[in-house]
């Protein structure tokens, strides 16, 4: 499903390759009948903004949006497991799913990185791709609602994904509006300082336990085994937009 490749690129870190493929990507959006005309227009507006504004400004806005705080993290399991050990096993399971499907990964990203997950779904048949989106539709809706609350044009990507998954977009977002509006923003300097302090405390506690492996983790508790390590992958993003543009031209 070509539109999933396009949305993957729109959600990834913007670079010159995206700008070079503007015409072909715009054509692919216009031809996408999996989404409504309204969603196609919203995606086209996002594409224009990402490719026509100054590149450094676009990259700065992207970083401020997705890399400050965790509420808009593009890592799926960040919203499900946080820092728990279950996240590591979920990573292993997803990597196994990629391998079984013959999806070769070369990007230096975690396997639950949403643009990478969309690249994978784009290689599957339409039914499997829709089911893959439906499996995480509650997370897609949450991200869409949070982005809309911040008036970000990137919300269009998640609304389109919900539509492809067969979810009632307006109903899904309406049910989250009150919750999202009441959330405390985690991208302020104060919130980021607090997160940094908590991570420092967790790091120091983990380091102390590593130095004293026999030390119990709490009164009357045996030390828990280490969580499953996270597996990084090695994928090259360079040329993705150019490759998609070539694919569109060959259609």
TrEMBL record:
<dbReference type="InterPro" id="IPR020945">
    <property type="entry name" value="DMSO/NO3_reduct_chaperone"/>
</dbReference>
<dbReference type="GO" id="GO:0051131">
    <property type="term" value="P:chaperone-mediated protein complex assembly"/>
</dbReference>
<dbReference type="InterPro" id="IPR036411">
    <property type="entry name" value="TorD-like_sf"/>
</dbReference>
<feature type="region of interest" description="Disordered">
    <location>
        <begin position="207"/>
        <end position="229"/>
    </location>
</feature>
<dbReference type="GO" id="GO:0042128">
    <property type="term" value="P:nitrate assimilation"/>
</dbReference>
<dbReference type="GO" id="GO:0051082">
    <property type="term" value="F:unfolded protein binding"/>
</dbReference>
<dbReference type="GO" id="GO:0016530">
    <property type="term" value="F:metallochaperone activity"/>
</dbReference>
<protein>
    <submittedName>
        <fullName>Respiratory nitrate reductase chaperone NarJ</fullName>
    </submittedName>
</protein>
<dbReference type="InterPro" id="IPR003765">
    <property type="entry name" value="NO3_reductase_chaperone_NarJ"/>
</dbReference>
<keyword id="KW-0534">Nitrate assimilation</keyword>
<dbReference type="Pfam" id="PF02613">
    <property type="entry name" value="Nitrate_red_del"/>
</dbReference>
């Amino acid at each position: 499903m070509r539109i999933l490749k396009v949305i993957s690129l729109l959600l990834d870190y913007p670079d010159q390759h995206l700008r070079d493929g503007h015409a072909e990507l715009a054509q692919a959006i216009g031809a996408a009948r999996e989404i409504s005309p309204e969603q196609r227009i919203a995606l086209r507006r996002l594409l224009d903004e990402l490719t026509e504004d100054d590149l450094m400004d676009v990259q700065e806005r992207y970083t401020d949006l997705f890399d400050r705080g965790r509420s808009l993290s593009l890592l799926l399991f960040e919203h499900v497991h946080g820092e728990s050990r279950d996240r590591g096993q979920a990573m292993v399971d997803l990597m196994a799913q990629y391998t079984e499907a013959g999806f070769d990964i070369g990007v230096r990203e975690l396997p639950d990185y949403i643009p990478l997950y969309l690249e994978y779904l784009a290689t599957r048949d339409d039914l499997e791709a829709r089911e893959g989106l439906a499996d995480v539709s509650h997370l897609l809706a949450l991200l869409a609602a949070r982005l809309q609350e911040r008036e970000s044009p990137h919300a269009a990507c998640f609304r389109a994904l919900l539509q492809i998954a067969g979810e009632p977009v307006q109903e899904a977002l309406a049910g989250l509006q009150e919750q999202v509006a009441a959330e405390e923003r985690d991208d302020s300097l104060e919130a980021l300082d607090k997160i940094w302090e908590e991570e420092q405390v967790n790091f120091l506690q983990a380091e102390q336990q590593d130095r004293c492996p026999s030390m119990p983790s709490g009164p009357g508790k045996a030390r828990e085994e280490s969580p499953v390590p996270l597996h990084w992958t090695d994928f090259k993003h360079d040329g993705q937009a150019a490759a998609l543009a070539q694919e569109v031209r060959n259609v």
